[in-house]
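Ticket reopened. Same input as before:
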Amino acid sequence: MCELMGMSANVPTDVCFSFTGLMQRGGRTGPHKDGWGIAFYEGRGLSSFHDPNPSVNSKIAQLVKDYPIKSHVVISHIRQANVGDICLENTHPFSRELWGQMWTYAHNGQLDQSVFELPLTHYRPIGTTDSEYAFCWLLGEIREAFPERPDSYDELIGFVKTRSDQLRELGVFNMLLTDSCYLMAYCSTKLHWITRKAPFGQASLSDVEVVVDFCEKTTPTDVVTMIATAPLTDNEVWNKLEIGEMIVFRNGLVISQQR
Amino acid sequence: MCELMGMSANVPTDVCFSFTGLMQRGGRTGPHKDGWGIAFYEGRGLSSFHDPNPSVNSKIAQLVKDYPIKSHVVISHIRQANVGDICLENTHPFSRELWGQMWTYAHNGQLDQSVFELPLTHYRPIGTTDSEYAFCWLLGEIREAFPERPDSYDELIGFVKTRSDQLRELGVFNMLLTDSCYLMAYCSTKLHWITRKAPFGQASLSDVEVVVDFCEKTTPTDVVTMIATAPLTDNEVWNKLEIGEMIVFRNGLVISQQR
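Engineering reply: fixed in the latest deploy. New output:
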């Protein structure tokens, strides 16, 4: 299995604090030592880092932890391999372009071998994971159903949920997906989220002794939502998604929640 | 204008030495301060770094310079903006998937406004540069002509050359393109390359006082080709490509050269 982390915010925000907690799970407090990756969006632009080495020892992870990259949307993943070798091309998150937007996806779980029978149209996997194959299928389905970007995402979100339900029938399918603006999360077994806004308080990481006072780092209008497989802090109340639930964030706020 | 750098090698090789020279041109010895990017292939996998800040001051560039990422194929670019704002989505190199391979491209030059009239099929730009638009057109043309990966690349290489000739009619089109295995370079005005193999010697950078002894870093069977807008070293003889020439490398060796 693996661990997921995502962020949606209404102002460019760094994830140094949360990533400091997550990277511990890549070989120290957790067994997810088979690589890690993170995708940051600045506007429409994507900056991503992928490393097949354990995050806890990774020089690139050290940079991501220490260097505040400010972003509206982030997706990160640390991997414990099941299907597919430990190598760069099997390292999440995965990205493909649709409608002139770079979409990014990461998956936690394992799918039945029959996932590889789903028909691919526009996108093909580079690596050999069930996760990337499912992404190529899902994005191809979206592209077939919506050849052009819809003005409203309401119908699209429902569509992604039905396709995610279909993938969940093939195994465990916890998933984060973004088009650079919307952050969609689908829960098959385990996903937690929290929205931080004024009045901001202190937060302390579960995986390593680090405390942050968000008051010092924010303005009163900031809204920042974090989503992760397991809560990253031990002094805040995180919301748990239900099985089969999909939640969508934009600018840090929930804009859709469907069960 | 911008500067290009590429590498093709028969063993996983880092580009720390060459990148140390190139990054100086991003704000110190050269005016290319409008961002930079680099793409490393490990097998089929792609690891890339993009930063809209000047490379000479960039913390991410510092990491790339100091941390030896071993790769068979590398494409790097430092930007001096002409068309398109200075922002992440306009930062080269650009990547898209075709045939289950991640293709990467970087461009030096400026194309006539009419490039934006070329018909796009499968790929659309995220940003607003003429460069990325030309890439989306070029890769779409390849996909139309070769819906499946050909067994031999001979015909494909000729096809890329004719389309590159067509782009050169619209302005300056120096270009590096890779499918993760082949490194293709097209020269419109200025590109230089050098193949290093045994017996290896010393090389000294043109842009900063750094000397490397490749004997200490290589084995006798290593073959490493570097290609760059202007030679990166001042004590070696670089080959100059002619106008309209295309050269293709695989595992560090020239496999095609067409004028």
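The first strand of chain A starts at residue 2 and ends at 13. The interface with chain B takes residues 42-52, 59-60, 63, 67, 87-91, 96-97, 99-102, 122-127 of chain A (CB under 8 Å). Please confirm and we'll close it.
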